[in-house]
Amino acid sequence: MTAVIGPDFRPFYSARMAIYAARWRALMAENMIHRGSVALVLLVAVALLPACSSKSAADATPLAPPFLETPVAPRVAATSATVAKGKQVYDANCPQCHGTAGHGDGYGAPFLVPPPRDFTSGQFKFRTTASGSLPTDDDLFRTISRGANGTGMPPWKYLLSDEDRWALVDYVKTFYPRFVAATALKPMPLPEAPGRSRSADRGRQVYAKMQCEKCHGDDGRGVGPSSNAMVDSKGRHVNARDFTQPGSYRTGWTEREIIRTLETGMNGVPMPSYSGVMSKQEEYDLVAYLMSIAGPGSGNQKRQLARSMEGVGAPDRVIALREHAWKYEPSEIHVKRGEVVRIEFSTTDNGLGAGHGFALDGLDQSVFINGAMVGAPLSVTFKVDTPGRYKFYCATQCSTTELHPKMNGVLIVD
Ligand code: HEC
Ligand code: HEC
Questions:
Q1: pLDDT tens digits, 221-242
Q2: CA separation for the pair 404, 396 (Å, rounded)
Q3: Does residue 133's CB lie within 6 angstroms of at least one atom of ligand 1?
Q4: Fewer Cβ atoms within 10 A, N terminus or C terminus of the chain?
């Protein structure tokens, strides 16, 4: 978890978690937690997930392509039928974070940093359009498809069809009436690259001149003099990006993507647009500087880890386990003594960008999964020789029962 936020935010973060845990308890007490039905859509979709394509820790293939490179599937024009379909898909997959009415107030919202978007506010961060504008349909489709790196927003392309994701675009737009009139939204032109010339040294000077350090820090680690006072349009604290961690870039770590962010800015949060403020050369030098300070290996997928029991051989039994709405499904697993079991674990959410995990009481040292993400399941193989009931829990971050009280289950060895 700290890896997501960065060491400098630890004290702030744990204070916030304490508040969230208290709110969660209050919610539990009021028994307001949805015991939601398992959506058939998800069941089917999960069945289609690549069977146990566990990626090794060394596999650096990003789960989500950069924003601009995310394929936009062909679509049918929006109709009342696509909106109705969108509502159905939305109600099955999105309310736990974004709320039934799109206010960003789902029951999981208090746990998420950053918080889920309030669609009724009309403020979107990931766009190709000019600062202050609404996103294009393609922008929304890209966001829904790829999610947002390092946040709770999952990459839905692994779980929902192109058609469903387009229907979601149509439905999400109904939460903000001004989308109806916004028919002329266009991607803003990005400054062309100034030939091959880039200088990180000159970029360092641009960084100072533009005062990026006020929010991103002199060392680019995301903590500057303005950090403590930095809030979004609803007054909630916002963290600036840590440029030393390429995986922390929500839209992807490429030159063009960073140029796009500098041009469009991010609506609803303090990241301004620098369109027209710098020369083309300055802008590209600045990006070269940012890229030069990024250290290796901070992508979410690089934190993925699974350890199996050594020397047990091939599995006698393979069990599909998944996280859905912060519960294990199934939450009770029966196996036989001495049987070699493989757990293939997939998730429907990226748990604050850190993923979800699996560990088994008593065997925690030799068997665990850490950081399974949507589209990147992980598996472990083990056997248990002593009959009994073994509790399993999330080794990644939700093991504190107050946080995700349902993320536990029992393995019964007969
Ligand atoms: C587990 C929580 C979670 C679920 C489930 C979830 N989201 Fe999100 N979503 C987020 C978070 C958190 C953000 C904010 C990311 C950020 O601010 O960087 C977000 C942001 C968004 C955005 C705004 C992007 C922008 O440009 O500002 C859209 C659109 C969106 N989600 C659509 C959806 C849809 C549609 C679904 C259901 C299919 C969904 N989300 C399900 C957590 C979630
Ligand atoms: C007033 C504060 C502020 C200033 C000044 C500022 N930023 Fe930001 N920046 C932010 C915040 C806050 C975020 C994160 C917003 C979020 O995701 O909620 C951010 C995010 C970013 C991102 C992340 C894009 C992504 O995909 O995740 C980049 C790149 C960036 N800033 C570059 C810059 C550069 C370069 C400058 C100087 C030219 C600059 N910023 C100036 C506050 C600022």
A1: 888 898 888 999 999 989 898 8
A2: 12
A3: no
A4: C
